[in-house]
Amino acid sequence: SVQGWLSWRDFNSPTFFGFDITSQKYTEVTRFAAKGEIDLLVVGHSQALNSIDPDVLEGHGLRTYNFGMAGTDLHMQAIAVRDFILPRIRPKAILWTLGLQAKEQMLWASNARILASPCFELQSYPYGSYLTTVAKNLLPYQKRPLHRWIETLVTPRNPRYREDGFMEVYWDYYHILRSETYDVPETFKRNLRPWEIPIHRVLGDGPRVEKIEEEDRVHTLEEARADIESAFQAAREAGVQIYGFSGPVHITQYRPPSIYQNAARGADRDFVEWLGNLIREYGIPYVNYGYYAPISKDDHLFYNHNHLNIHGARKLTEVLAGHLFGPEVSIPREFSQVLSLAQRKRMAPTSNQER
Fold first, then answer.
1. Closest CA to 349 of 219, 255, 258, 226
2. Handedness of CA 170, 296, 248, 263 (dihedral sign)
3. What's the CA gap between 21 and 29, in Å, rounded?
C-alpha cells in the first residue's frame, strides 16, 4: 500500500541526526513507545543490535526494543540515553553493552558527526527531547544532495530490521568461511584476519568506517567519561535500572593479537578499572559472555567473528534472560567481570589450545 511504502521511508534527514542509523532508530523507537510502555530498552553498538532478540525477551514478559546502533561508542550512546531515552521514551530498564569492545570513544567520524549534530545539541536543552520532534522536520534539515533524495525514494529499507529494532541475519560463519561464491556485501572485509583470507565476501551491515585523528575528537576523554557517568546518574534518579552485558565473539578472536590478549597483559587497564568501578558504584548487574564456550566455539551461531546470527542471538538472549531476568539475578562468577575469568582461562597458555 502507499501508506506502507511511505512508512518504510519515513526516516528523517541525517543532516539533523548526524547519521542515517541515528535517524532511523530515533524515529522507530518513538513509534514503538507510542504503542505501549517499554519494559526493556537495549542500548549499544552492533553487538547489541545483533545479539539481543526482543522476541525471546517478550517470551519472558518483557516488551523490548533494540536501540543498538552499529559503529557507535559509549559516549554517543550515553548522551542519547541521558537526553532522549530517559526523558522521552522512559523505559522501565536498560540493557547496555559494556565491555572491552564498548570503549568510551572511538576514532570513527560517524560518532563525531552524531555528537556535533543539531539533534544532539537541541536535545540537551530543557524539553529538548520533545523539541527534536518538531525541529527535525524544518526545511534547513531536509537539505541534502539530489542523489541522497533519490536514494531515499528508490532504496528499499533493509528487510532484516524488525519493528522492534533487531537485525535478523541468517547466514552463518561456517558457510561464509567455506564459500568462494557466497554473494554477500563486502562491508566487513576490513575485519578479515590472515586465517580468514580465502573467502571473497563477508556479510556485514554497518556504517562505512571513516577514521579521524585523535586531535579531531569532538570531546576530550574526561568530558566523555563525565557524560557517561551523568547518564548512569540520570537513570538512577529516574528509577531506571541499568543492566550490563558483553556479547560473545568467535573463538578465533582469542588468538593473538587481539584486544582480549592485550587487556590480559595490562593494556586498557585504566578503562577496565574505570568501567568496573562504574558498574559497582551504580549497582549494575553485569554479565560478560565475551567468551562463552557453548556459543563462541560454534561457527553456525555467527555471521562473522564479532557478530552473532539470529540463531546465536536467540541462544544468547535465552541464557541472558535466565541470568538477569529470572526470579532473581544469578550471574555465574566466571562471567561477572569486565575481563572475565572465562576469558582469562581461554587465553591462559596451554599445550592444547583449540583452533
1. 255
2. negative
3. 12
340 with 334: CB under 8 angstroms?
yes
The amino acid that residue 109 corresponds to is A
Cβ partners under 8 Å of residue 155, min gap 6: none
Question: pLDDT digits over 269-323, tens only?
Answer: 999 999 999 999 999 999 999 999 999 999 999 988 889 999 999 999 999 999 9
Gap between the Cα atoms of 255 and 347, Å rounded: 8
Q: Got the DSSP string for 330-347? A: ---GGG-SSS-HHHHHHH
* DSSP H or E stretch at residue 321: helix 310-324
Q: What is the mean pLDDT of residues 48-55?
A: 95
Report the candidate in 166, 135, 150 with the shortest Cα–Cα distance to residue 28. Answer: 166
**CA 190 – CA 204 distance, rounded (Å):** 10
Q: How far apart are CA 239 and CA 253, in angstroms?
A: 37
Distance from C-alpha of 268 to C-alpha of 271, rounded to nearest angstrom: 5
**Residue 279's closest CA among 354, 344, 331?**
331
| Run of H or E including 7 | helix 2-7
What residue type is assigned to position 148 of the chain?
R
- Which grid cell sits at 140? 534547513
Using only C-alpha atoms, the chain has a radius of gyration, in whole angstroms, of: 20
Alpha helix (H) residue ranges in 188-333: 221-237, 259-264, 269-281, 293-296, 310-324
Identify any residues that bridge with 242 across adjacent strands, giving them in sequence order. 94
Phi, then psi, of 97 in degrees rounded to 5? -75, 115
Strand order in the sheet with 286-288: 64-66, 40-43, 93-97, 241-246, 286-288
Nine-digit cell string for 209: 568506517
Q: Which three cell numbers stand for residue 181?
A: 561464491
Nearest to 80 by CA among 141, 19, 34: 19
